[in-house]
Design brief:
heterodimer, A: alpha/beta, Rossmann fold, 5-stranded mixed beta sheet, 14 strands, B: alpha/beta, 5-stranded parallel beta sheet
């Protein structure tokens, strides 16, 4: 009996084919723009240049300058433009290029976009999508490499998604655009050229629904963004030793699907959370706290967190490699958890 | 009908009807605010209150040049803009009281009063933050092929913050129908303009963005209205953004009614500005040139007083929000 992959299951005609992460994002965005005339894209170099990461390649040709808008390097005005346009019924997609740049427009994201519906008494919705490239690994140093999901996930009113592969890059982007709330799509720079099966047709991936990327019975590894791939590689390595790792990809970190995590922990009794962001105050701390609250009696070991050390992202490749969590650290972490019984 | 109003003004024919309209809007703001101040002093209102008294000519003059579908973004001192744009007294007072019937269902308070059905995209607790949002509203109008405009109100102090400069440049480079209205009341909270910028005229900042500007007497509702009508017509017809600097004055403190701690301005200065009260100025002029009778003007005050008394009673008898609904509207859907 053949089972369909998640990607193959999307299309009735089984039209999945290999696509890169960045092309999958681009395809999802283009399809969402075809689906809804109110979707437009604004940002620095998104139209004429197609985006510095080629995220917006060819979209100007298809959609023209009315819907593909190059803006000044002016992130506060850019996000503000998105907030105002969203409040007036459009579905803006604004691109912040590097996630580190949210520092210059955080007010518009945190105090305006996120809170408008609530503090206005529900009279407006802000269906705004903010796309941005996050993550270390390209020698881009401290101001072009951060993973700041914990900042944003802390703000009521925002949603935050972290695609871990090409399939989720497309599906989560489509869902973000269709959603009536402000959603930050954290693309990962290192993954832009990675490939996997991606359906040709438009599809959304439900926000707030985790995906069990691999089933296992010994340790649950909850991995964010690029760390999902590292966790799957670690699981392969450990499988050779007879250790079965369950890998959970939350996909959305706000809202966070904790139920899937709890259910897994009740079976495996051991949990490791891994993310690129610094460990201190990261999503791992929140997940660990929720797991001990909901499943304390099922734990055979304390929840282990793996993240970056409490330092800015370093430049020199040797330092950067030591900084970012990887397969080896996840493997070590799983072994440590299994030593306790 | 609404569209025609703007065209009339462009011809600089300030009719008796417009004078009465300006007067009524100013009276409504004045009484709303003085009553709110009284309620605050009486300890009836929670939270902060940034009163608009003294600046009425600006909101009235600009709003009388707008259509219902034109959009505005406002400031922490937003009641005047809301009243002049037609937001109802009932939901405004109910909001100040934190009631479930308020403009924000009791979730926003003074600094977030809004009415999207009347193009009021909200007061705003963050200085300068409304500027880019108005740019977005103007973008949406053009995108949808509508000819509405967006007006953003901000103070002299807000022109020192990045959001103002970014928003001004964005509106200019995209050629969007935005009117920038600087209400220069001379103070950024308690700091006089001379201590927060080297310019005398904020309007000079418009030139940096290739945007025309005009300076008007912000105590003269007719002058504000003429300038606004011109800027609005220009924006509506595709001429791009423009800035109006209205020199005005805040009678009350930055927050609340009475001065706190040491005085930061002189009694003489306050008296000088009050001698040119915007409502007095308009009333004297209207009676002198026969556009309104004293009785008509008095009638506007009385009607407004009655409406306010009814609205306050409504607010005071309105239900408080249900704590079970605390999470209402955090998210859509």
């Amino acid at each position: 009996m053949t089972t369909l992959t998640e990607a193959q299951a999307v299309g009735p005609n089984n039209t999945a084919r290999k696509l890169t992460y960045v092309k999958a994002f681009n395809e999802g965005l283009a399809q969402a723009m075809r689906e809804d005339e109110n979707v437009f894209v604004a940002g620095e170099d998104v139209a004429g240049y197609g985006g510095v990461f080629r995220m917006f390649d060819n979209l100007l040709d298809e959609f023209g300058p009315r819907r593909m808008i190059d803006t000044p390097i002016s992130e506060a005005a850019l996000v503000g433009l998105g907030v105002g346009a969203a409040a007036r019924g459009l579905r803006p997609v604004v691109d912040l290029m590097f996630m580190d740049f949210i520092g210059v427009c955080l007010d518009q994201i945190v105090n305006q976009a996120a809170k408008m519906k609530y503090m206005f008494g529900g009279s407006v919705s802000v269906p705004l999508t903010i796309t941005t490239a996050s993550g270390a690994g390209l020698g881009a140093a401290a101001q072009h490499s951060q993973s700041l999901e914990a900042w944003l996930a802390h703000v009521p009113g925002l949603k935050v998604v972290m695609p871990s592969d090409a399939y989720t890059a497309k599906g989560l982007t489509v869902s973000a655009i269709r959603d009536d709330n402000p959603v930050v799509v954290m693309l990962n720079k290192v993954l832009l050229g990675s490939t996997c099966e991606v359906p040709e047709e438009i599809y959304g991936i439900p926000l707030g629904q985790a995906h069990t990327a691999r089933q296992g019975s010994d340790v649950t590894v909850i991995a964010l963004g690029r760390m999902v791939g590292e966790a799957l590689a670690a699981a392969d390595e450990l499988a050779a030793e007879g250790v079965e790792i369950e890998v959970i990809d939350p996909r959305t970190v706000q809202p966070l699907d904790t139920e899937t995590m709890f259910a897994s922990v009740r079976r495996t009794n051991r949990v490791l959370v891994v993310h690129e962001a610094v460990t201190f105050g990261g999503l791992g701390a929140e997940i660990a706290a929720q797991i001990q609250d909901a499943a304390f009696d099922h734990l055979d070991a304390p929840v282990l967190r793996i993240g970056a050390p409490f330092s800015p992202v370093p430049f020199s490749p040797v330092l950067e490699k030591a900084y970012v969590p990887d397969r080896a650290r996840i493997t070590q972490g799983c072994r440590r958890l299994l030593e306790r019984s | 009908m609404a569209q025609k109003k703007s065209a009339d003004v462009a011809a600089h024919q300030i009719s008796a009807q417009v004078i009465k309209d300006l007067h009524e809007r100013m009276v409504r703001i004045r009484l709303f605010e003085t009553e709110a101040g009284t309620l605050m002093e009486a300890g009836k209102l929670p939270g902060f209150l940034h009163l608009y008294v003294g600046q009425e000519a600006v909101a009235a003059g600009v709003m009388a040049a707008l259509r219902d579908d034109d959009q505005i973004t406002s400031t922490h001192r937003g009641h005047g803009h809301a009243v002049a744009k037609g937001v109802g007294f009932r939901e405004m007072y109910a909001e100040l009281y934190g009631r479930a019937t308020g403009a924000c269902l009791g979730r926003g308070g003074s600094m977030h009063i809004n009415d999207v059905t009347r193009g009021m995209l909200g007061a705003n607790g963050i200085v300068g933050a409304g500027v880019p949002i108005a740019v977005g509203a103007a973008f949406a109008a053009r995108y949808k092929g509508e000819d509405s405009v967006a007006v953003t109100f901000f103070g002299d102090g807000a022109t020192n913050i990045g959001a103002f400069h970014e928003g001004a440049n964005m509106a200019a480079i995209l050629g969007l129908p935005v009117v920038f209205v600087c209400e220069n009341n001379g103070y950024a909270e308690f700091t006089p303009q001379s201590k927060h910028m080297l310019l005398t005229d904020v309007a000079e900042r418009a030139a940096a963005y290739g945007m025309p500007s005009v300076i008007v007497d912000g105590m003269d509702a007719v002058a504000v209205h003429r300038a606004a009508a011109e800027a609005v017509d220009r924006a509506r017809s595709g001429g791009g953004p423009m800035m109006i600097e209205a020199k005005t004055y805040r009678y009350y403190d930055h927050q609340g009614v009475k001065g706190l701690r040491h005085p930061y301005r002189s009694a003489e200065e306050v008296a000088e500005w009050k001698a040119r009260d915007p409502i007095d100025l308009l009333e004297v002029r209207a009676v002198a040139d026969g556009t309104a009778t004293r009785a008509e003007l008095d009638d506007a005050w009385q009607r407004t007083r009655d409406e306010i008394a009814e609205a306050i009673a409504y607010a005071e008898t309105s239900p408080l929000p249900d704590t079970a609904d605390l999470l209402l509207n955090v998210y859509s859907g």
